[in-house]
Amino acid sequence: MENKKLLEVKHLKQHFKSGRGKNKMVVKAVDDVSFDIYDGEVFGLVGESGCGKTTTGRSIIKLYDATDGEVYFDGKRIGGGPQIFFDRIAELKEEARMAALEFDPAKLAQEKIKNEANASLAKIDSSDKTKIAEVKKAKAEKLAALKAEVKSNPEKFAKNTEELAKVKAKYNEEIAEQKKQIHLLKTDNALKGDTLRTMKNIQMIFQDPISSLNPRMTVREIIAEGLIIDGEKSKKLIDEKVFNILKIVGLLPEHAFRYPHEFSGGQRQRIGIARALIVEPQLLIADEPISALDVSIQAQVINLLKNLQEELGLTILFIAHDLSVVKYFSDRIAVMYYGHIVELAGSDQLFAHPLHPYTKSLLSAIPLPDPHYEKTRQRFAYDPRSHGYGPGEMPEFVEIEAGHFVLASPKEVEQYKKDILLKDNIVKS
């Protein structure tokens, strides 16, 4: 029997605005990301620095308000962004304006004059000021002539007020429905009531074990904070839980009365893990929990997480940029590039049959402790321009084989399927 979906991320977008005025731009940190995480599994999310992995995790746990998309936890919507509804409202308003023109002859004629002028301006070089001025002057003259004609012949340009009212009523009803959806989304997003209780089941381990711990709080205060927020008031019970979780993560009860600066990097990360686990979450988001640690300590923390996952039955979203670590720890892996998931497959499946050029590039960068292999290891550089997508060839997220998804154009899909068949035949022979 297949495990149930614990987390569902649907078309998640996280855009940030930068600059002002003419220099204003939108940074698409996460752009239309979708994936599911099943109860009890470890889901790896990998990619180079800056590709949007951490932003995805932070948007799921609601540290960022998502721009668009939806996030469901255990079947309940806990987050998402209203942008799709705002975009639809803008479309409906424009459709309503264009539909109303058919019943308002004066405005329709005015619209035609403006459109003709804009079309002429688009064909003129921006440096040719004389021609631009001529087009603008002709536009102004035509609009003035139209105004005079409307004034002298009002019957010809009379509005069909009855049909205009029907058009407005129709579109206002659709706009009201979109606004209703925005209200429902904001209600689900609000950190109160059922959503607040649900969010307790999702906790996060942060990348930097130094800056993520308050230096003015003792370890006991740091770890117990989640229990206190949840309403626990018994000091005795809090102490018992804190001491117990410290033992579970490999620390001692007396460590509870020290401050973060008195610990090593690996010990601080164990404190961060204890803080996340104290409220007994179902889903743990581990945001590059080993990248700031020494190599020897990295293995200890990974083994600790693996043991905790098995003992406590945790579901983990494991974010990292080291594919070799993710392979050891994850059941399924999603590869992320510039805000998009480009490939998703089972751990063994991804390493046996990498399809997307970016995944191959990441795999080629993994070093092995073998000098003979390192001398002959081929490294592949990924260039997104190599796809050469033309009109009608925009890539979509497609299932190439069971459980193996790739962002590809129709031509690439056919080629990837041939590659899979070829590799399977080679393995069988």
Features of the shown structure:
four-stranded antiparallel sheet; alpha/beta; 15 helices
Structure overview:
By secondary structure, this protein is α/β, with parallel strands linked by helices. Among the domains are: 85-187, no CATH class; 217-281, no CATH class. The chain contains 15 helices and twelve strands. It has helices at 53-60, 83-101, 105-123, 129-152, 161-189, 193-199, 219-229, 235-248, 265-277, 295-312, 323-329, 347-352, 357-364, 371-376, 410-428, and strands at 5-18, 25-38, 42-46, 68-73, 76-82, 202-205, 283-287, 315-320, 332-337, 340-346, 396-401, 404-408. The radius of gyration is 29 Å and the shape is globular. The two termini are 33 Å apart.
Sheet with the most strands: spatial strand order: 6-7-8-3-9-10-12-11
Strand content: 15-25%
Q: Please tell me how large the radius of gyration is.
A: 29 Å
Shape: globular
* Major sheet description: 8 strands, mixed
Q: How many E-type strands?
A: 12
Poorly predicted segments: none
The portion of residues assigned to helices is 40-55%
Mean pLDDT: 89
Structural class: alpha/beta
SSE topology:
Blueprint: E1 5-18, E2 25-38, E3 42-46, H1 53-60, E4 68-73, E5 76-82, H2 83-101, H3 105-123, H4 129-152, H5 161-189, H6 193-199, E6 202-205, H7 219-229, H8 235-248, H9 265-277, E7 283-287, H10 295-312, E8 315-320, H11 323-329, E9 332-337, E10 340-346, H12 347-352, H13 357-364, H14 371-376, E11 396-401, E12 404-408, H15 410-428
Parallel strand pairs: 3-8, 3-9, 6-7, 7-8
Antiparallel strand pairs: 1-2, 1-4, 4-5, 9-10, 10-12, 11-12
Helix pairs in contact: 2-5, 3-4, 7-8, 7-9, 8-9, 9-10
